[in-house]
Amino acid sequence: MRHPEYRNWAGTTLCRPARIVRPLVEEEVVAALARAAAAGETVRAVGAGHAFNRLACTDGTLLDMSAYTGVGHLDRDAGLVTVRGGTSLAALNAALHRAGLALANVGTITGQTVAGALATGNHGTGLAHGPFASLAVGLRLVTADGAVRDCDERRDPELFRCARTSLGALGVVTRVTLRCEPAFRLRVVGGSRPLDDVLDGFDEWAGSAEHVSCAWLPWRDTVSTRALHRTEEPVTPGARLRPWRSTVEEVRCGLAGLAGRVNPAAAPRLVEGLPPRRPQASYVDESYRVFSFPQPVRFLALEHALPVAGVPAALRALRGALRRFGLYSPYSVLVRVGAADDAPLSPAYGRRTGYVNLTVPRGTRHVELLRTVEHVLREHDGRPHWGKAHTATAEVLRPRYPEWDTFARMRGKLDPAGLFTNDHLARLLGSVDE
Ligand SMILES: Cc1cc2nc3c(=O)[nH]c(=O)nc-3n(C[C@H](O)[C@H](O)[C@H](O)COP(=O)(O)OP(=O)(O)OC[C@H]3O[C@@H](n4cnc5c(N)ncnc54)[C@H](O)[C@@H]3O)c2cc1C
Hints:
Distance between the termini: 35 Å
Shape: globular
CATH class of the domain at 66-182: Alpha Beta
Largest sheet: 8 strands, antiparallel
Strand order of the largest sheet: 16-13-15-14-18-19-17-20
Structural class: alpha+beta
Helix content: 25-40%
Bound molecules: flavin-adenine dinucleotide
């Protein structure tokens, strides 16, 4: 019998699960786990498949949670919303906006599911903002024994901390309660600065607005900066179209990447040869439309979370390494920042964090480039984004996570037989009984 096929968003991982189950109610999740356990199969949950690696792959049961959606209870006064785990961030944003509410911070895309974003330590940018999982105040998961467990800061707080960033290794997250706030607008201010200026005053730049990011084409000595400030000003006419500028930029990079397949070293010439972009004029829009933009071009990305104070040295080392390497990606290196988190497997665990992301066109020629960047970021105390490309194993990861054993104990307790494991997870976390 030919098994069904699963591919991630990037199209870079493929697996053939024995079966794909698309639960619509919690009982179907419980039943699928029982059936898999009885058949000696493993189980992986999958959301929108936006992870760039094999986290969600299995040859057993794939629980496709993308139809397990819905925004439930909305408590405007308390600023809380309860959603089903498979709900996309886009659907959540839209429902919150209709209710006059918003999430405090969101990453660059909203196609991923709430549970997938939690599981991998998804983040946006802003020194005052922890990763997406820090917005969670409670969640429900179905564990390997079929039990449905609710946890929050009072009910089973240790489970809650571990389950906030769990790589899908503790159970299937069916419901999450998140903090939200009254809807707000943001003023977007773009700019360009010498890279060394930003690095010399990195702390000051990182705190210069509620949300900052910079994008750097490594053959250049300047970076494009983006700062977002809360404002009471009205939405700028035509603001809805502005995020498409970023989309067009991505398409430009994608085209340069395609053209560069023949000669990847030509990326700088191809990018510089495209018509120059006019600088982004400042504008105001609803926060959720400012944070994210449509990303239709498929690519591969690597990102590491570094201590924020270590970012300047890491980027200087990266500049040297990339220029020596000589093969560039047509995409910018993206730098973002965030507050510390206390989930044991959060890449932001225990420290204010700078996130350094490299995006490359799909294709084997750029894999070596990813490895070079990974090596530099690892040398600078980087922790890989769980949902992006990396080669780290438990041996590399364990010393980087002070509460590694807290998570390992929880995993051993909840999933002693390794129902929720796969080859990728075994490499990352070790086997359950280690
Ligand atoms: C174009 C693009 C842009 C991105 N931008 C950002 C960004 O700005 N910031 C950032 O931090 N990341 C970003 N990412 C990474 C992405 O957000 C994460 O990898 C996230 O996991 C994707 O969510 P998903 O629903 O697609 O999860 P999937 O890829 O489907 O799954 C990821 C993990 O979550 C687990 N999982 C999924 N659903 C459940 C569930 N219900 N219960 C238990 N475990 C579950 C899976 O088992 C797997 O381990 C981006 C990715 C892409 C493709």
